């Protein structure tokens, strides 16, 4: 290598080492680890957040149980978005700052069918039972991986006395979005998932929420991770998600907010 080029490389290296810690932290994307239920809303808000602040955000999503497990296994993140139950467990484990916890909104579970398909009656538990029984194949997220809606769907099928009848007729996916996608693609006739995940999938339509007696209301929260590299950035993004623009976007995705 030419002597002048080596000198330039050394100067660049020394300059980077002399940067203050906050500048180094801001050079890396702000890492957000969240669930599929909040993903679409968060991505919309992140676009305006990045345009306004210049901070690049890396959003990684999984179901609620997997998000928690990744943190428990040592993965680092700046901001965590998960169900209230999982956030409480993570706070108890010292993985998120309890004082930073803020509610994003509360979500219901609904039923999806393919766009253009007949919409079954799901207004009562009895009607929902018949709708599930009439579907050749249904889809939901994976209870074994800790998915919130999938766990509820599996328990509901059991409670409705349909476990045996539906054996071999249930497609299970890592996340709710993929389960709803199976309906959009015609691989399943019906999906049970968080309403926000249903709304976000083109080609699928929301039939409606589960009836009250079969419903699960899930509060979703954000919290700054205790191992955050950029806690300041995480706090700024959480403020944006829980501010007027963020709450309007969550409301549009089917969350109850405020």
Protein model, in words:
- This protein is an alpha/beta fold and 258 residues long.
- It has eleven helices and ten strands.
- A five-stranded mixed beta sheet has the order 2-1-3-10-4. Strands 7-6-8-5-9 form a five-stranded mixed beta sheet, with helices on both faces.
- The chain is globular and about 50 Å long.
Q: Quick recap of the structure?
A:
The protein has eleven helices and ten strands. With 258 residues, it is an alpha/beta fold. β6, α7 (148-159) and β7 (170-173) form a beta-alpha-beta unit.
Distance between the termini: 62 Å
How does the overall form come out from the CA principal axes? globular
Low-confidence stretches: 1-25
Structural class of the secondary elements?
A: alpha/beta
Instruction: Kindly report the average pLDDT value.
Output: 90
